[in-house]
Amino acid sequence: MDLRILNAEIQAFINKNIGKSISKLALQKNPFQDVDWISVLNQIEAKTKAKDKLPNWFSTKNIIYPSKISVEQTSSEKTAAFKASIVSGKSLIDLTGGFGVDDFYFAKKIENVAHCEINTALSNLVKHNFEQLNILNITCYSGDSLDTLNTLKTKWDWIYIDPSRRNDAKGKVFMLKDCLPNVPKNLDFYFQNSDAVLIKTAPLLDISAGLSELKNVKSIYIIAVENEVKELLWELHKDYHGNVSIKTANIVKDKTESFDFVLNEDVKFPIFSLPQKYLYEPNSAIMKSGGFDEISTFYNLNKLHKHSHLYTSMKLTSFPGRIFEITNTFFYNKTEMKSYLEKSQANITTRNFPDSVESIRKKWKIKDGGNIYCFFTTDENNHKIVLICTKIS
């Protein structure tokens, strides 16, 4: 960590060039003889990435950033705040601290937070940043987190782990056993140090695969931001052996869409019907959860087809996802397409349909955008249909 980067003149230059092209700036002569030009450019690029993702860091003076990739891979403040709503108690140890965004929010709920980071340089950088952010209840430890657990010999209220999905031998991996640290292998040791463990994984991890590797899972949280799934959270408790709760959250600008259900609990089969007046498309967190029958039952909505995952009703109801009014429905064929959509402009979505959005646009010369929303899908009679809609929410 080169503290010379905090020189007032250098910081002013960094702030002046937020959002500028790094490739163009790189062609300039370094105006600061005592500081590596690449380091200055890295601060500009990383801080630009932090502007929307990490507003507290962006707006605080004398923050030092790691690489742009580290900022891209860290939790956003929105997802970190959600994680903090899960934990409680007086102590938490983060075994994979990274840039420290999650710990910043854990520290708002927990009296004593430990930040463990195997990279000494990053650990020192994070400690510096916590001081700038005026966070006084986080202690930073550098080195292997297993050694830190052994050394501290503390019974923690929570252990938090965000295992790295990059393995030196295997490259990018998806099974928990191939991540670093190896959570399934170390889980019994973790439970010797805490009765509660919270694990963050990538959204690509299959829920059934995760359950096959872990034990004592109480809840699985599927977190989306602006309808893009960002992470899965696995809540484990040492002596828990009951049903697994699935909790979905889609964090949007002014609210959080939530839907919860119990995994593998008996639920009545949905009612199937042809399209009615309104169409409902679940948000991405629900789509990841697989709770397609559960949401149909809970909101009393009919389903278009077993595999379409689109829902319909005659009366408008609130719903965690997009809602549309259906203005026209027709079978997918040449005559109907020429009449209604050829050479038009529309937003296209496909669900349980053989053709891709790209091929549909190309075949029928449909431009993207506008106020018309078209769903190409399959109905309960296995007919390929097109729904022309206007968006309600």
Ordered list of secondary-structure elements with their pairings:
Layout: H1 8-16, H2 22-25, H3 37-53, H4 55-58, H5 68-73, H6 77-84, E1 91-94, H7 101-106, E2 112-117, H8 120-132, E3 138-142, H9 145-152, E4 158-161, E5 166-167, E6 171-172, H10 183-193, E7 196-201, H11 207-213, E8 217-225, E9 228-237, E10 245-252, E11 255-262, E12 278-282, H12 284-289, H13 292-298, E13 302-303, E14 311-313, E15 321-331, H14 334-340, E16 347-350, H15 357-364, E17 373-378, E18 384-391
Pfam family, one: Thump_like
InterPro entries: PG_1098_Fer, SAM-dependent_MTases_sf, Thump-like
Domain THUMP-like: 321-391
Summarize the structure.
InterPro entries: PG_1098_Fer, SAM-dependent_MTases_sf, Thump-like. This protein is of the alpha/beta class.
Give an account of the 3D structure.
There is one protein chain. The chain is of the alpha/beta class. The chain folds into three domains: 3-71, Arc Repressor Mutant, subunit A, CATH 1.10.10; 74-262, Rossmann fold (3-Layer(aba) Sandwich); 278-391. The protein has 15 helices and 18 strands. Strands 3-2-1-4-7-9-8-10-11 form a nine-stranded mixed sheet. A seven-stranded mixed sheet has the order 13-14-12-15-18-17-16. A two-stranded antiparallel ribbon has the order 5-6. The longest helix is centred in the N-terminal third of the chain and has 17 residues, at 37-53. The two termini are 47 Å apart. InterPro entries: PG_1098_Fer, SAM-dependent_MTases_sf, Thump-like. Residues 278-320 form the PG-1098 ferredoxin-like domain. Residues 321-391 form the THUMP-like domain. It holds the Pfam family PG_1098_Fer.
